[in-house]
Write a structure and sequence with these properties.
The chain is α/β, with parallel strands linked by helices. It has 45 helices and 33 strands. Its EC number is 2.1.1.13.
């Protein structure tokens, strides 16, 4: 027997990581494909040893390890010599579960140990030929059973095997592989993450038995183009669920070809802080189930993975051969391996979808109603065995906003373990519930572990504690960690539950040290529960429980890094059982104060959370007295008043106008469409349906006839956008009514039931951008002209845009964006369209887009098709129709290309004519202020102040209506536009609708505007503004970085930078700077979606447009209060509200992403300072757009000479300086400053080389 090198897991991982830092590692290809080519029959599989075996063996490829060992060894050798660094053992089905189909369970250990030995022998032979070390990975397949999916469609809670059975089978396989000399463990083709968890647990168990650890590799399978595993997880959810095993490589294999897999690998490359591995199939199978992608074609595709820097290891799966691996190895040989990103320490959970508890998330709602101890309804359902209705309770919690669901089955008359398993198995079959993470809640640890064995995602355990001593606590924590779960740690030790501040902090600190220092438990996966106890019970000692929890939370978050704080909120109000309004008010008050100091999670009834600022003032004050223990008689006062807070309700009336109802139905439909009247459209549509042969004829007849009238009126300027959007609402509701009839017709007699659209247009707001009003308007206008619109919404990545475009066979793609980073994303989409061979026209639109940018940046990236900038919705129909028409398309494109060449040339000449100064000269010409006579006013407070709820009614006077009307493409200013003979009537009608909706918004409190402002001691240092922790101005709190104009100026004009308006530090003057974030409310998206579901685009767009105006009005109002009150540098300012839009006041509020500071990344500093996401729910997307879209942020600068300006184009010297000051990579900086760069970064790099 060949002598093999001893296995040392630590040395193997070090050697592989060293090689991975130097080159992209290569894995082998398919065993089955090569074995098939050998043409083995039943006798070959059986061999002499198994000639009389009871089961057929043909197809049992693993058995060939014992019956055809020379052939298997040769296949491994061929792969090694083709360029593989690592080969897998031929043990994909090497478990007792998989081999049971062949009756071969008894040979599992031998099969795996011999399989590993053969591969190791092949590795040694290869090494002897060329001196290059090779490695062997013990391959572990998924088995032919699933732990997350029932094999019986009629019984979704049934499982054919248990977690423990699968774990035992995997453990036997791992022992055999290690005995045969496997150097790595590769758990691959994972289509059910729970099976993989069992494999990991088994592997760790064997490692512990032997005191040896080998590197682990994980590879999942996205089963189809849905982008999910067979058990329903997204790639990121899959990563979150398994990252606890610290895999050396993580990636995907099988099911998809390289082309289809690329987007998913790109996503993993971004989020995985380990080596990323991809080994796709040789394309997709043909109609005969065979793979026919050539080695050359596959090598080119996988080589592009490497060139794009998204992989560290590549190989092949089904259909690949040594020739494929040779082509892949050659394609990646000269490519640099992917750089492993640094990932922030955040709790990353998952159900079917990922959930990351980022620091900006203010609070996580854990749904409490799936808890038999906390919900009488749920308890009754579970005890009666009505699990279907119990699932509805969970579903309602998720729909109401629960980001995690707490499941507890602790009830005296229940078999808690059985109930937990049954319920969680059923949850796994309900995607709308299973998409969120689960918190497994029990006082019995055996119930917790049984629950963990049912959950494929990354769960939370609620809870563990030291009540039975450290040893039990450590044991429980290790078990939780083996399943990858985060843990809730109760403030409970051997002496009992902590009820004082001192005990809460002491126990949590002790637990933290044990978990992090002794076990290595990730601190970000630790959630402390310092015990929420009932207050206002009448027992004096209980009065301080609320304050103790809140103060303990503050200390825990400050002293125990990366951890979280949670609690069972309903415990607090236990004394007021039966009085839900008072209980909800107590919870709102408690959460408000606890969240302010760092509580970021709570077990709550997600559907019954009151808003702190909307509580009746008297009730809020009474509850605060109780929760904060502010008065000795607080309990009595709340009890006395409690019964008064139990009522509510209101009624509404509605009137309609019936005067036009006497016309024939065709004319009534036309009238409804032209006038946007929905009240009778369903009745009229039904009447029209009764009079035609097919329901489709109603669409193609009176409905399209009416829409043609609308189109003619719009085209001739007799109708305006808001009216067209109303028409579309009517049309949508009519079509929605007819669709069931068309579907029934299709089923009955084969009629296709489809409308004949003029063309198909895909529209999307690009990745990182949340703004969509303009896009929606364009979509409505096109739909009114009989185009089929596929609207992908907002924040849409390029891969999804192109995937859907290809599947749907669209005629045109339209991209929209509002913020400047969206311009680069549009260029990226265009380049991807070029790379993937698209030829359809690409329309560009949005506030930051322009004809020049389209011609200079986007159009050159997409040579196969044509890029067209569309100025507004009124031009969209003409552009689209001319591009779709075969007769006009060629001439239109030729004309646009000629126009864009001229635009690009003119732009280049214009830029050459502009003289720009070196940065040093620009800095020598700043905006000069005489600081000697300036005494900055000190704000009334420093740091931040939250305005938790602002009445919309107070903001209405500050609304600037001109931009609102411009959203709908009216040309003119408010209110003069109402006098315009053409636009006036339509503009006034829109304005009246807006006023009516605004009244409804105010009366019904649709929005809950929130804001946060702050002030800090500040001084300028060069082009930067430094903020300080205190008046000593010695410790820098944060820095806002500025950009300076570099255009050569005449007439003594300055090269201004925003820092010029803040007193220089060397002046000795103590200046200040403020900042703010405001939003119209988080409710905007939900309300708009409600209208969209009702086919009411008009009101959906209207509510978004009003939300934008409310946010801007809020920013204007806060700035006024800053000048008069909070900073108070202009206390006597007297400017009429309607004059504020002209900005004739002292001071400015410049915003990142706007001309004075075009860099959107500067928002991060402001949001971190104000803790805007945690405090008011406004967050930044990956492109630094604000969500919700109806939000405004910026700085406050007070100097009377400060003014708005534009930085315009900047040169390389300033970008290098700016990147250095920000500590940002130069290429990353150029990415974010792309629209203002006065040079081509690519050209600069080529010149530099």
């Amino acid at each position: 027997m060949t002598e093999l090198r001893p296995v040392d897991g630590t040395e193997i991982e070090a050697a592989l990581r060293q090689r991975a830092s130097e080159k992209i590692l290569v894995l082998d290809g398919a065993m089955g494909t090569v074995i098939q080519r050998l043409g083995y029959g039943e006798a070959d599989f059986r061999g002499a040893r198994f000639m009389d075996h009871s089961h057929d063996q043909k197809g049992n490829n693993d058995l060939l390890i014992l019956t055809q060992p020379d052939a298997i060894r040769q296949i491994h050798l061929d792969y090694f010599l083709a360029g593989a660094d690592v080969c897998e053992t031929n043990t994909f089905s090497g478990t007792t579960i998989a081999q049971a189909d062949y009756g071969m369970e008894s040979i599992i250990h031998e099969l795996n140990s011999e399989g590993a030995r053969l591969a190791r022998e092949a590795a040694k032979l290869a090494e002897e030929q060329d001196g290059r070390r090779r490695f062997v990975a013990g391959a572990i397949g998924p088995t032919n059973r699933t732990l997350s999916i029932s094999p019986d469609v009629n019984n979704p809670g049934y499982r054919a095997v248990t977690f423990d059975q699968v774990k035992q089978a995997y453990a036997e396989q791992v022992r055999g592989l290690m005995d045969g000399g496997a150097e790595l463990i590769l758990i691959e083709t994972i289509f059910d993450t729970l099976n993989a968890k069992a494999a990991i647990a088994a592997t760790w168990q064997v490692f512990d038995e032997r005191g040896v650890r080998l590197p682990i590799q994980i590879s999942g399978t996205i089963t189809d183009l849905s982008g999910r595993t067979l058990s329903g997880q997204t790639p990121e959810a899959f990563w979150n669920a398994l990252r606890h095993c610290a895999p050396m490589t993580f990636g995907l294999n099988c099911a998809l070809g390289a082309k289809e897999m690329r987007g998913h690998i790109s996503e993993l490359s971004r989020i995985c802080d380990t080596l990323v591995c991809a080994y796709p199939n040789a394309g997709l199978p043909n109609e005969f189930g065979l793979y026919d992608e050539s080695p050359e074609a596959m090598g080119k595709l996988v080589g592009e993975f490497a060139a794009s820097g998204i992989v560290n290891m590549v190989g092949g799966c089904c259909g690949t051969t040594p020739d494929h691996i040779r082509a892949i190895a050659e394609a990646v040989a000269d490519k640099k391996p992917r750089a492993i990103p640094e990932v922030p320490r955040l709790m990353r959970l998952s159900g079917l979808e990922p959930f990351t508890l980022a620091k900006e998330i203010p609070f996580v709602n854990v749904g409490e109603r799936t808890n038999v101890t906390g919900s009488a309804k749920f308890r009754k359902l579970i005890k009666n065995g009505d699990f279907a209705a119990a699932l509805d309770v969970a579903r309602d919690q998720v729909a109401a906003g629960a980001q995690i669901i707490d499941v507890n089955m602790d009830e005296g008359l229940l078999d808690s373990q059985k109930a937990m398993v049954e319920f969680l198995n059923l949850v796994a079959a309900e995607p709308d519930i299973a998409r969120v993470p689960v918190m497994v809640d029990s006082s019995k640890f055996e119930v917790i572990e049984a629950g963990l064995k049912c959950i494929q995602g990354k769960a939370i355990v609620n809870s563990i504690s030291m009540k039975e001593g450290e040893a039990k606590f450590v044991e429980a924590a290790k078990i939780c960690r083996s399943y990858g779960a985060a843990v809730v740690v109760m403030a409970f030790d051997e002496q009992g539950q902590a009820d004082t501040l001192e005990r809460k902090v002491e126990i949590c600190t002790r637990a933290y040290k044990i978990l992090t220092e002794e076990i290595g438990f990730p601190p970000e996966d630790i959630i402390f529960d310092p015990n929420v106890f009932a207050v206002a019970t009448g027992i004096e000692e209980h009065n301080g429980y609320g304050v103790a929890f809140i103060e303990a939370t503050r200390i825990i978050r400050e002293t125990l890094p990366h951890t979280h704080v949670s609690g069972g909120i309903s415990n607090l109000s236990f004394a007021f059982r039966g009085n839900e309004p008072v209980r909800e008010a107590m919870h709102a008050v408690f959460l408000y104060h606890a969240i302010q100091v760092g509580m970021d999670m709570g077990i709550v009834n997600a559907g019954q959370l009151a808003v702190y600022d909307e509580l009746p003032p008297e009730l809020r004050e009474l509850c605060e007295d109780v929760v904060l223990n502010r008065r000795d008689d607080s309990t009595e006062r709340l009890l006395d008043a409690a019964e008064r807070f139990k009522s509510g309700g209101e009624a509404k009336a509605k009137t309609t106008d019936l005067r036009w109802r006497e016309a024939p139905v065709e004319k009534r439909i036309e009238h409804a469409l032209v006038n946007g009247i929905t009240e009778y459209i369903l009745a009229d549509t039904e009447e029209a349906r009764q009079g035609v042969e097919r329901p489709l004829h109603v669409i193609e007849g009176p409905l399209m006839a009416g829409m043609n009238v609308v189109g003619d009126l719009f085209g001739s300027g007799k109708m305006f956008l808001p009216q067209v959007v109303k028409s579309a609402r009517v049309m949508k509701q009519a079509v929605a009514y007819l669709e069931p009839y068309m579907e029934a017709e299709k089923l009955a007699n084969g009629g296709d039931g489809k409308r004949r659209a003029a063309g198909k247009v895909l529209m999307a707001t690009v990745k990182g951008d949340v703004h969509d009003i303009g896009k929606n308007i364009v979509g409505v206008v096109l739909a009114c002209n009989n185009y089929e619109i596929i609207d992908l919404g907002v924040m849409v990545p390029a891969a999804k845009i192109l995937d859907i475009a290809r599947k749907e066979g669209v005629d045109i793609i339209g991209l929209s964006g509002l913020i400047t980073p969206s311009l680069d994303e549009m260029v990226h989409v265009a380049s991807e369209m070029e790379r993937e061979g698209f030829e359809v026209p690409l329309l560009i639109g949005g506030a930051t887009t322009s004809r020049v940018h389209t011609a200079v940046k986007i159009d050159p990236a997409y040579n196969r098709g044509q890029t067209i900038y569309v100025t507004d919705a009124s031009r969209a129909v003409g552009v689209v129709s001319s591009l779709i028409s075969k007769e006009t398309r060629g001439g239109v494109i030729e004309k646009i290309q000629a126009e864009y060449r001229k635009v690009a040339e003119a732009h280049a000449r214009s830029e050459m004519d502009k003289t720009r100064l070196p940065l040093a000269k620009a800095r020598a010409n700043p905006f000069k202020i005489d600081w000697s006579g300036y005494a900055p006013k000190k704000p009334s407070f420093t740091d931040a102040r939250v305005f938790g709820s602002y009445e919309v009614a107070d903001l209405v006077p500050y609304i600037d209506w001109t931009p609102f009307l411009q959203t709908y493409e009216f040309k003119g200013r408010y209110p003069a536009i109402f006098e315009d003979p053409e636009q006036g009537p339509a503009a006034k009608a829109l304005f009246d609708d807006a006023q009516a909706m605004l009244k409804q918004i105010v009366a019904e409190r649709w929005f809950n505007p929130k804001g946060i402002i702050g002030f800090w001691p500040a001084n300028s240092v060069g082009d930067d503004i430094q903020l300080y922790t205190g008046e000593s101005r010695t410790d820098v709190l944060a820095t806002f970085h500025g950009l300076r104009q570099q255009l050569s100026k005449r007439d003594g004009r300055a090269n201004t930078c925003i820092s010029d308006f803040v007193a220089p530090k060397d002046s000795g003057i103590g200046d200040y700077v403020g900042g703010f974030v405001v939003t119209a409310g988080l409710e905007e998206v939900r309300i708009a979606e409600r209208f969209e579901r009702a086919n009411d685009d008009y009101r959906s767009i209207l509510v978004k447009a009003l939300a934008d105006r409310i946010a801007e009005a809020f920013a204007e109002r806060m700035h006024e209060r800053v000048r008069r009150e909070f900073w108070g540098y202009a206390p006597d300012e007297s400017i009429a509200t309607d004059e504020l839009v002209h900005e004739k006041y002292d001071g400015i509020r410049p915003a990142a992403g706007y001309p004075a500071q075009p860099d959107h990344t500067e928002k991060v500093t402001l949001f971190d300072l104000l803790k805007a996401e945690r405090r008011i729910g406004v967050k930044l997307t990956e492109s630094y757009a604000m969500w919700p879209g109806s939000s405004v942020s910026g700085l406050y600068i007070a100097h009377p000479q400060s003014h708005y300006f534009g930085v315009a184009k900047v040169e390389r010297d300033q970008v290098e300086d700016y990147a250095g000051r920000k500590g940002m990579d130069i290429r990353e900086t150029e990415r974010w400053l792309g629209p203002i760069l006065n040079y081509d970064p690519k050209s600069y790099l080529v010149a530099a080389e």
